[in-house]
Amino acid sequence: MKIGVVTFPGSLDDGDAARAARIAGAQAVRLWHADPDLHGVDAVVLPGGFSYGDALRCGAIARFAPIMETIKKAAADGLPVLGICNGFQILCEAHLLPGALTRNQHLHFRNRDQWLRFDNVASAWTGSFVEGQEILIPVKNGEGCFVADADTLDQLEANGQIVARYINGNPNGSMRDIAAIRNEAGNVVGIMPHPEHAVEALTGPSLDGLGFFASVLQYLVAPASPAPAQEAQVRETVTIPEPLIRPTIPVEPDPALAPPAWPEIPARVPAQADDAEPVEADDEADSDPAAEIDEPAVAAAEQRRDSSEH
Amino acid sequence: MARVVVDVMLKPEILDPQGQAVANALPRLGVSDVASVRIGRRVEIEFEGEADVERAREIADKLLANPVIEDYQVKIEEQAS
Lengths: 310, 81
Hints:
The complex is a heterodimer. Chain A is of the alpha/beta class.
């Protein structure tokens, strides 16, 4: 089975996605955004990153890449497509999935290991999971806040199209804690956190991400439906590694979901990156508008910014 | 050269955290009577010949705005001579 991974200019996680596909037992095929040919792949991953620099809006320009035309047509015919992070944004922009992904409500880039709970596993990419299962995979985004109008959200709920939700804290303010959704047919899935970064004990918080890639391989063997009856039969062809013992990572409810408190930033700081943590200002600088710039605080903020950028 | 201006704004029901952050900063300027701030994008399109509003509308609808979350307005800018 061949899983294609598309590289757009600015993709970051294409290498990891291809690696995850290989670890799951697939042949990974690297696809190029400007080449409309899918080279006979059985499924496609749109990886994370910043396609076309995310100029305009995330995914807005990638949507018009030559390969996206082919993927749109193939997806309509049932090709399994998984959009991760930027890939999710591209799928929404391409109208392969409803809704849109907007700036994190707290304006910070959020990078951490995140718990999700599966709401519905009836998709090409989630058949090896069970409903209610909780998994831990990394999340890293600046524009991961899923929004849609109330009717669309209700429809997603009613159709079982909400694949997974954030638990133990919503990292970006997504409506109804949505982390992953699918299209009605179930072959197209978009997920904001990164399963491809949780496939190896050395680097991932778990091996939970592997299930997405194993699921699509199962699905391709028995494409009719990812019903539980077929699950037992295809389990023989694909071995899903046992998840590691999960590290207990304290996940506190996220107080930063509120918009940043402005007065915490010291007076007259020339340029404050929007993803930097609010700078602790001492009371003196805060109360006296003419106070000198708090240089240690600025330096600390810059240091923090450097270490949190990707 | 003819210029068409496209204004793209988040729909009223979509939260605008950038605008909120700006609004929260205004008291630092001594401004305390602003109820809300919302931030959008202005795009200027220069056509080589006549301004083509229909074409600009198509560009706005397909690319410049995401109609799921944004509204847009297209207008020809009067050339100051």
